[in-house]
Amino acid sequence: MIRMSRVIISAINLTKYFPVQRGFLERLISRKLEYIRAVDGVDLEIKEEETFALVGETGCGKTTTGRLLVRLLEPTGGDIFFRGIRITHIKGEELRKLRRHLQIIFQDPYASLNPRMKIGDAIGHPLEIHDIAKGREKRQIVLEMLEKVGLTPAERYYELYPHQLSGGERQRVVISRAMILKPDFIVADEPISMIDVSLRAKILELMVDLKKEFHVTYLFITHDLATAKYISDRIAVMYLGKIVELATTDELFSNPLHPYVKALISAIPRPGPKAERERLLLRGEIPSPINPPSGCRLHPRCPFKIRICSKEEPKLLEKERGHYVACHLY
Amino acid sequence: MKRTPLSRTIIPPLRKIRRLNLSEYWIAISGAVIIIVVSLMAILAPLIAPYDPIETVGDSLEPPNTRFLLGTDNIGRDILSRIIYGSRISLSIAFLASIISMIIGASLGLLSGYIGGTFDTTLALIMDSMYAFPSIILAIAIAYVLGPGILNVTISIGIVYIPVYFRMIRSEVLSTKESLYVEAARAIGASDRVILLKYILPNVTASLPVVFSLNATDAILIEAALSFLGLGLPAPTPDWGFDLKNGYHFITAGYWWPVTFPGLMIIITALGFSLLSEGLSEILNPRLREV
Questions:
Q1: What's the CA angle centered on A204, arms A203 and A209, to 5 degrees?
Q2: What are residue A264's phi and psi, to 5 degrees?
Q3: What letter does residue B199 receive in the DSSP assignment?
Q4: Which residues in chain B touch residue A112, judged by CB atoms under 8 angstroms apart?
Q5: Angle of the B79-115 helix axis to the B257-284 helix axis, nearest 10
Q6: Of A96, A117, A150, which is closest to B189 when you measure between CB atoms?
Q7: Cβ of B188 and A160 within 8 Å?
Q8: Of A112, A152, A165, the CB nearest to B184
Q9: Would residue A91 count as lying in a domain?
Q10: Mutation for testing the A interface, residue in B177, B188, B191 having most A CBs under 10 Å
Q11: C-alpha to C-alpha distance for A70 and A72, rounded to whole angstroms
Q12: Over the Cα atoms of chain A, what is R_g?
């Protein structure tokens, strides 16, 4: 736990705007380009060997943040540092080499494997790309990895094509492919949300086992607070492209500060008919990320709104030790 | 798609990869048989043809008989021999032309779709304007400019079909390059070249054999048409299209054989390629095979 204090990856004021696609006629009529502010000023620091969960509703920018951090998307603004080195704009060969350290597990195991590539070749391909192993040696490493993720008999799985596997098996393949390079940092983008409920726990368990073995750092992206609670050391909650609260998992669940986070936590079903709790309900729907509300982005829905909320945007500040929140109430 | 879930202790019932089954692939096989027979005819022409195809060996317009199984044409040449030798011309032009257009069209489509931008827009515009012409008219125009001869006919038919491959491959590339597994390939550090060759190319070629066979079908028909119109090969060369043209003058007088047999050969060969294209698409695509 001593090494936990070292920062492995950090983002400073990270932004990503996607231009809104418009038709030819619309472009003639108005000149103004509109943007979806998917990620709008995110600051975070992820420490070595921790599991950091990024939680939020659909469309809040959590996936975009994950893709930005592993440089699959070009950031619009801000900076990304990997082990203190600025990687925001590196390109070409340098970027290819960096990929060895940063990996991603996608949400959809059905779409993230090349349908024309055998399982064994798919998992072994990163080894070839980075000139680590070839031929027999590669095969041996891949077989070991298949055993580790529970795809046995490994020899048999090696020769199969993705369409011959179930969703859970495919996700194991995707995890193997990300792990085979022994990366330092893995973004797991909702890795269990498309898998049968009965298999989810197994996949999570596998990820935890592999983490212990390979000493990797996870950024675990999920919309499910219960999953985040199970797997993560620290949690950041996003709302409309911004982090609204960041704390250790225990702290966040026992002492949520931000109204949005309070509402999320109060929505988790609890076992037992007598379990008492206060439900905090937010009014309305998430506003469009094209024109986010002025000031605090939650203010049109927030029951604790005060005057300043609609005028000034709250900053993400440390309210207690290691507990950051962006809210005018604190 | 969901199969039995796998736990660490239970070996899942893995689906066996099916062996090539003759009864299942009868379409492709019948097509292939036709093409093989015609190809053998072409290769073995000097051995199996009873007469020299350009010599006058009988009387003018003899009906089919024991000496000339399919009769003779207006200047007394054996039609059977001419058909056998004619397959050489038809097949070689069809294959060569299709290969030319496939290689050029597919590689341009691959690059254009992947690179995108102005390069793609320009190339797509050129290809679309070529595609706007009816193929036969474009072929006639190019053949006219190049002049008669086997190579020129091949080139003109080949050029006509480039846009077909280009459009097909390009549109497949456009959708494939956005797919998650291509992004995954980028994430593991694959270079553009590797992504194109290992992740995109194998996933866009599924319909290539189908288009190739269809293209060959059309190439045979266009070649026949060019020869029919006199833009194909010089006179004594045995060629199905040329013989059609030669024979149709006499059909009104009741001489049906000089036009029927070359016509039949064109149809049968074209059918062979069509059947092959249909059947191949099923065999070569593992996802279709699974169903």
A1: 95
A2: -60, -45
A3: I
A4: 180-181, 183-184
A5: 40
A6: A96
A7: no
A8: A112
A9: yes
A10: B188
A11: 6
A12: 21
- Which residues have C-beta within 8 Å of that of residue A236, sequence separation ≥ 6? A44, A52, A53, A54, A55, A243, A245, A246
Chain A nearest CA to B41, separation (Å): 37
A window 136-175, beta carbon within 8 A of B = 150-153, 156, 160-161, 163-169, 174
- What does the block give as tokens for B23? 């009864």
- Closest CA of chain A from B215, distance in Å: 25
Domain with residue A83: its CATH number is: 3.40.50.300
Q: Taking CB atoms and an 8 Å limit, are B202 and A117 in contact across chains?
A: yes
Q: A162 lies in a domain?
A: no
The count of domains in chain A is 1
Do residues A170 and A109 lie in contact, with contact meaning Cβ atoms separated by under 8 Å?
A: yes
CA distance B170 to B172: 5
* Of the partner residues B4, B15, B188, the one whose CB lies closest to the CB of residue A129: B188
C-alpha R_g of chain B: 24
Note down pLDDT in tens along chain A; length 330 residues: 444 468 999 999 999 999 887 777 777 776 677 888 899 999 999 999 999 999 998 889 999 999 999 999 999 999 999 998 999 999 888 999 999 999 999 999 889 999 989 999 999 999 999 999 888 999 999 999 999 999 989 999 999 999 999 989 999 999 999 999 999 999 999 998 888 888 899 999 999 999 999 999 999 999 999 899 999 999 999 999 999 999 999 999 999 999 999 999 888 877 777 666 677 888 888 888 888 888 899 988 888 888 888 888 899 999 888 899 999 987
Using the structure block, give the residue that is written with the tokens 């930005």.
A68
Contact status of A13 with chain B (Cβ, < 8 Å): no
Closest CA to A198 of B4, B183, B167: B4
Q: Which amino acid is at B180?
A: L
Residue A15: beta bridge partners? A40, A77
Q: Which residues of A90-117 are buried (b: 16+ CB within 10 A; e: fewer)?
A: beeeeebebbbbbbbbbbbbbbbbbbbb
Tell me how close the Cα of A255 comes to any Cα of chain B, in angstroms.
37
Distance of CA A218 to the CA centre of its chain: 9
Q: Which CATH architecture has domain B39-253?
A: Orthogonal Bundle (1.10)
Total-model pTM: 0.79
Q: What separation, in Å, do the N-terminal and C-terminal C-alpha atoms of chain A show?
A: 31
Domain membership of residue A12 (yes or no) is yes
Residue A18 lies in a domain: yes
Q: What is the ipTM, given to two decimal places?
A: 0.86
Please tell me the distance from the alpha carbon of residue A71 to that of residue A60, in angstroms, as a whole number: 19
Of all residues in chain A, the one with the smallest CA distance to B177 is A114
Could you tell me the end-to-end alpha-carbon distance of chain B, in angstroms, rounded to an integer? 10
B214's tokens:
């269809």
Residues from chain B that touch A196, judged by Cβ atoms under 8 A, are: 2, 5
Instruction: Confirm if A172 and A203 have CB atoms less than 8 A apart.
Output: yes
